[in-house]
Queue: 3 jobs
Job 1
Amino acid sequence: LANYKNIFFEDPYFMKSIGNTLLFMIIDIPIVIIGGLLLASVFNNRKLKGANFFRTATFLPYITIPVAIGVLFSLFFDGNSGTVNKLLSGIGLIKENINFLGTTSLSRMTVILMICWKYIGYHMIFFNAGISGISTELYEAADVDGATSFTKFTKITIPLLKPIIEYLVIMNIIWGFQLFDEPKVLFSSWTSSVGSNSLVGGPLKSCLTAIWYIYDTTFGSQMR
């Protein structure tokens, strides 16, 4: 029982890691599901030229290894020489570099953006397959009844995709609790300009996830 007492009442970071993990899930899950559904609907338009190219480009981040994604985003959002800072400075939007990885709110936004960028293509592929399997007769019947595109989307497409949506929500919850590689590499990369005390969990442990904390407690700085 002393272990549970230590975790819930004495450990300063356990509940914070759980809270961070839940925060990422609450924000990310609606974005990737709604975004994937909208992208699938757009790319299923037969009038859209290059739809296959856009599908492939959107799906590529999902099959990219997590370490590469973490390094890539550290290059983009580095506070000293990051691509985003150079771009914003070049067009005159900022005068001083923004420390994306050194502040609590911006570091969390960076992790959220990274997760969405990786997984939205995965959701798009599932929704694309589901939409392709819906009989065109349903849409033709709706056209006869004078239904608008929005009505067909909300009354036909979404209800018939309900099993896929349920599956993706479950998978996102699993992935959310497994989140580890990308944020760890992001804040541990040699390109990061954050201080050494911020590497584990980001600034003020604002990006410390449950699995990351388990790893750090067992094999990392605590070696327990």
Note: Confidence is low (pLDDT under 50) at residues 190-197.
Job 2
Amino acid sequence: YSLWNHASGMVGTAALSLLPLLILHTPGGAAATAYFYAAFALASLLYVVPGSFSTALFVEGSHPETDYARDVRSTVWLSLAFLALGIVGAVLLGRFILGLFGEAYARESYETLILLVLASPIILANTVFTTDLRVAKRVKPLLLITAISSVATLTVAYVLLPTTGTPAGTAHAG
């Protein structure tokens, strides 16, 4: 169980780790990668919410005497409330926070940040689904699903980045 679970975590992390390398090979090069990474680092703070609630769900779901369906509903609703606050915060303060890295970051990373924070409900759905698989001790399908998701993410990025660039689309070297 632990090895399959660990392997799926590594496969999922690999895709996110390789994404900046793909962006590095776009027309924006190192600058586009830096702008993406700043937005991603900020959005990742929001991704902690579904991860934390799903960890608690896993702990609760591991006990047979709990009401797992109720716990799933609580996880989803509480996470969505925090995600909504985070999304509003990113929209209102994102440009300012990115501007702490420099004006170019505020200009070039903001759209990417908004796209990434708007993906947080999808991350919530994914973490709840994968937690459900873990609670059911179905970790082999978890590895397969994670691998397919990671390959799809990298494939779409590989195909679209050369033509569309990062969401800001205006990154210039220098």
Note: Helices lie at 2-24, 29-61, 68-99, 103-118, 120-135, 139-164.
Job 3
Amino acid sequence: KYQKIYALGFIPALLCIFFNIKFSIIMLALYDFKKPNLFTWVLNKAQKIFVEGQRGKQDILKLGIKSDKIVIFQHWCDQIRFCYVPKSNEQLKVLFIGRPIRIKGKHIIQECERLTKGIDYEYIENVPYEDLPKRYQMADVVVVPSLYSEGFSRVVIEAASCGCAMLTSNKGALPELVKDFGKAIEPTPQNFAECLFKLKRYKLALEKIQVNTALYAAQNFSEKNAEVFL
């Protein structure tokens, strides 16, 4: 009935194994594997293993998986819905979007806010999908201060498509994801404050960064990235 089965993570993969169904698996997180374990058995049952970028590939190579089974993919978003709009904020506007749990680093940006003046901060979570583009389009900078091995963040892809300057932590796949248009730093309040002050001070440079970020996103985060699955 079906030409291909894509298992989104390990639980669906186990179901495919249980029902003796051929499948490929899509890895949507980094696990920081150290050596072969039970996951090796599951992945070896898959026809293909789709991973997020080089960081994702290196993660499962440590399990002893053969590289010819691994396919690298890149996330994408709707480039019509998530599109660049010139910013018109009087003060630098910084957006944090995500769950208020410690590993997401919201407290780092809150402490950064106490260290800075003349910068507007907004913290949002659980925003309806249809409202997301306008929230990105209103921001000058989007911060992703994750304290764990973050995978290929959709926040980065959506925000970049809307022309936001990107400032992330140097954890997980974030440095690989933003290396061509953003900046990845050690996630401390002082480091974020220093970088935000520079963006606030050099407004023309910030505008150029925003335009270049949107252009990069249009070329690299579009629906053509889905072709790797087809």
Note: The chain has a mean pLDDT of 96.
